[in-house]
Amino acid sequence: MSKAATRAAGLATLPGDEFGPGPTMPMLPRTWDQQHDN
Question: What is the residue-wise DSSP string for 1-38?
Fold first, then answer.
């Protein structure tokens, strides 16, 4: 997948269930390499 075709990241809100409201967590593209950003 080229970097030009990479979709933007954002926040995903998952639906709640019997355990309470759903968590909100950042979504990162598969091409993001965390080790190179540190």
Answer: --GGGPPPP-EEEPPPBTTBSPPEEE---TT--HHHH-
